Automatic annotation (TrEMBL):
HAMAP family tied to this protein: Fapy_DNA_glycosyl
Reaction it catalyzes: 2'-deoxyribonucleotide-(2'-deoxyribose 5'-phosphate)-2'-deoxyribonucleotide-DNA = a 3'-end 2'-deoxyribonucleotide-(2,3-dehydro-2,3-deoxyribose 5'-phosphate)-DNA + a 5'-end 5'-phospho-2'-deoxyribonucleoside-DNA + H(+); Hydrolysis of DNA containing ring-opened 7-methylguanine residues, releasing 2,6-diamino-4-hydroxy-5-(N-methyl)formamidopyrimidine
Stated name of the protein: Formamidopyrimidine-DNA glycosylase
Position of the signal peptide: none
Length: 271
C-alpha cells in the first residue's frame, strides 16, 4: 500500500512534467473506483494545471475551477507517459496534456479514488476530518501530548489514527516507536512529555528518511514499464518479527494490534 512518503515522492516525480500544461483530454475507462468518479472531471478539459500538492495520501491537482483529488488506495500507481504508450489492463484514468504527456492511473484492486472539489470546496468533507501533517510545524510535542492526555488507546493505534495525525501508516508507526524506545502497547495517555517529544522527532525522521530514499525512484514515474510508488527501505523492525534486534540482538516480538502486525524489541522498547 502506498504510504505518505510514496505519495510525496509521486508528487515530486510527476509535477515537473505536467505543471503549467493545458489538459487536452480526460479519459475515464472505468468509472467505479472506491467511489464513482464524478462526471465533473470531464469539465477540466482546456484548463491549465496550476500546481500539485499533497494532503495526507491525497494528490491534489489544482486547476482554476477546482481541485482534482487522486488517492492510490491499496494498489494504485500513477505515472507520466508519452501519448504513444499503449494502455494496459487496469489503466482506468488518463489526464492528457497538450505537451503530449499523459498522467495515467493504474489500479488493479480499484480501492483508489478520483474526486473533484468544485471551486476547491471540500463538499464531501474528505479533507476536513484529517489531523495535521506529520512533517508540518503543527505536529509537535505540545500538540501530541495534549491530544494523548487521558487516552487509553495503545500508542501505536493512536499514532495511526487520522484525526490525530495523518500519514503515519503501519510501517512508520512500528519504526518510529522502535527508534523512540516506546512499547507499541503503552497507553497513549501514560507517556511522559519528554518521551512524546522524542517520538515526534522520530516520526518526522523516519518519514523524511523514506522520502529521501524514494527520491532515487523519481525517474520511474516517467517510465512506461517502471513500478513507481513503492520503494525498498532499510527497516529496523517492520517485517522482521522473530529476527534479532539490530541494536541488542534480542529476538523481535510480533503481535497483532487492531488486526495489523506490530513488531518490537522487548528490551529496547519500554512502557
Ligand atoms: Zn533491542
Amino acid at each position: 500500500m502506498p504510504e505518505l512518503p510514496e505519495v510525496e515522492v509521486c508528487k515530486l516525480g510527476i509535477s515537473p512534467h505536467i505543471i503549467n500544461q493545458k489538459v487536452d483530454d480526460v479519459i475515464v475507462r472505468f468509472w467505479q473506483l472506491r467511489w464513482p468518479i464524478p462526471k465533473e472531471v470531464l469539465t477540466i478539459k482546456g484548463e491549465v494545471l496550476q500546481r500539485v500538492e499533497r494532503r495526507s495520501k491525497y494528490l491534489m491537482l489544482v486547476f482554476e475551477s477546482g481541485t482534482l483529488l487522486i488517492h492510490l488506495g491499496m494498489s494504485g500507481t500513477i505515472r507520466v507517459v508519452n501519448d504513444g504508450v499503449a494502455v494496459v489492463k487496469h489503466d482506468h484514468f488518463d489526464l492528457a496534456f497538450t505537451n503530449g504527456n499523459i498522467l495515467r492511473l493504474n489500479d488493479p484492486r480499484r480501492f483508489g479514488a478520483v474526486l473533484w472539489l468544485p471551486e476547491h470546496k471540500d463538499i464531501d468533507g474528505v479533507l476536513s476530518k484529517l489531523g495535521p501533517e506529520p512533517l508540518s510545524e503543527a505536529f509537535n510535542a505540545d500538540y501530541l501530548f495534549a491530544c494523548a492526555k487521558g487516552r487509553k488507546t495503545p500508542i501505536k493505534n493512536f499514532l495511526m489514527s487520522n484525526p490525530v495525525v495523518v500519514g503515519v501508516g503501519n510501517i512508520y508507526a512500528n519504526e518510529a516507536l522502535f527508534l523512540a524506545g516506546i512499547l507499541p502497547t503503552s497507553l497513549a495517555g501514560s507517556i511522559s512529555k519528554r518521551r512524546i517529544t522524542i517520538l515526534v522527532d522520530t516520526i518526522k525522521a523516519v518519514l523524511e528518511s523514506a522520502i529521501s530514499q524514494g527520491g532515487t525512484t523519481l525517474k520511474d514515474f516517467t517510465q512506461a514499464d517502471g513500478k513507481p510508488g513503492y520503494f525498498a527501505q532499510s527497516l529496523n523492525v517492520y517485517g522482521r518479527g522473530g529476527e534479532p534486534c539490530l541494536v541488542c540482538e534480542t529476538e523481535l516480538t510480533e503481535i497483532r494490534q487492531s488486526n495489523r502486525t506490530t513488531v518490537y524489541c522487548k528490551k529496547c522498547q519500554k512502557k
